[in-house]
Structures are given as structure tokens and as C-alpha cells.
Known about the structure:
The chain has 10 helices and 8 strands. By secondary structure, the protein is α/β, with parallel strands linked by helices. An 8-stranded mixed sheet has the order 3-2-1-4-5-6-7-8, with helices on both faces. Helix 2 links the parallel strand 2 and strand 3. It is globular.
Amino acid sequence: MTQGWSARDIPDQSGRTAVVTGANSGIGLVTARELARKGAHVILACRSEARGKEAEALINRQVYGANVQFVPLDLADLSSVRAFAETYQQSSLDLLINNAGVMALPYGRTADGFERQFGVNHLGHFALTGLLLSRLRAAPAARVVSVSSGLHALSNIDLADLNSERRYRRWIAYARSKTANLLFIHELSRQLRSAGSAVVAAAAHPGYASTNLQTAGARMEGRRTAERLAELGNRVLAQPAEAGALPTLYAATAPSVHPDSFTGPRLQGWRGAPTRSARAKWTLDDATGERLWVASEELTGVRYGW
């Protein structure tokens, strides 16, 4: 179905607007660049103004006639998420790429008191999607794509301890946040269908892609050996960010993408052209998805209007 699919196969995006979170580096930067190359107006939603403007300048150099714009967004601060949504003045939005994320960080909390991985990877994007939902529903063929991970299979979420207050294990917390991404897409797809909306919600994962995500946690703690091992893995084992971005780009643009699909690399979920990816059965559980949804609305204060 997707044999050999590449960025060259992205359909024309002229006249469409895309928001890409975490677009200043890694697969987010590649995703934004390739959408811009196909004619989309791309909003680079990044926490760092300096890095966001650097990404904007880089894409403008690499893509002739690119239409990209940096707008600040800090997913670890719900006031920033609300401010971003308020600055979005267009009546419709065609693509929302929930790409930004953190991985295996030491324990920390967001500005609103949430465990950092759960807060950034899930709650920030949950709030952002809800605040932009009316614009997405106003577009004729809008999509929401959340970037999860194959590592979601390490753990289901713990609804009784969403903020990992009883015990914090960085990789389990990361896996739970990525499971939350998939449960969010599952429940969002169900609610969109019930509302009779044509918006498609899908998920993707990059496999093992060489980005700064792998080294950030070790760098924060000064664990030089772990940081060097991650750098070595990126050089020797990982595929480049250009390849890692393909599942996201496929989920965002390919005509055959279905609601609640999960796209990843072809070769054992590791690397290769994008195709349908395996997912843990708990990410398709209606009851868990609904309970997480209710909890997320309560925690963020964002209610989805249908």
C-alpha cells in the first residue's frame, strides 16, 4: 500500500494551513518544511523564540517561496496554549500536527503542576486541539495527527496516578504519555464520528529517528555517558529525521488514511516507508479512552464543543 512512499508523494497543499508543534527541530522541522514545499501555509508552533525563528529562516532558505510563520507555543504552560489559540485568527485550519514532545526526562512539573511528560505530550496537545476544534471543523477536509511512539507498548496509562505521584519511572511515564496520545486519537475519532464531522484524527510514530529527543534527558542531568551512548545510537542505528517524518506526513496528507489509524515505519516499526503500525490493544479501549478524556477536560479546563 505504501511501498516506496516518500515526501515527493505528498499531494499539493496549496491553500491549506497547517500548525506543526515542535517545528524547530527533528521530525517537526522536516514535517513543516515538506508541507511548505508542497504549498501549505505552515505555522511553526515552538517554545523557544530563538529556535523558532531560526527554523523559519532555515525553511525559507531551503524552500523557494515558502510561507512559514513562527508563533510561540509552550505546551508546558496552558496559558501559553490558550494565548496561541487566541492569536490564530483564520476561520479554518486544515492540519494540526501534534508533534512536540519530551522523552525520559527527570521528574519535573509543568507550569500548571502536571508531571512534565504527561503534561507536555498529552495534556498540552489535548488543550490545543480542543481550542482549535471549531477551526478544524470549519475546514472541508481537516486532519489532526498526533505523534505517538512504538514505546507506548511498555505501559498502559494509570488513571489513578496520571501525574506519577506514587512512583516515577521515566521510561514508563514516557510510555504512558504516548499511550495517552493514542487513546486521545481513538476517543477523538469516536466523538468526531458521533458529531457527523468529516475531520480525520490519526496517529503516527517515527520509529527510531535521529533527533535531539534521545539526548535531552541525559543532558539535563549531566549524565555524559548516557548522552554519548544516545548520540552513538543516533549515528549508527537510527534513521535520519527526514525518514522519521514520513509516517507523520503520510498520516497528514495521504488520501487513503482512515480515522484512528496508526502509521509507522514498514520494517518492524523501526525504519522504512510508512505503513500501518501495530498498537497495544489497550489504546483501542473505549472505556479507558472516555475516562482519560473526562480527566483531561477536568485537568486542562478545556471542554470540547460539539
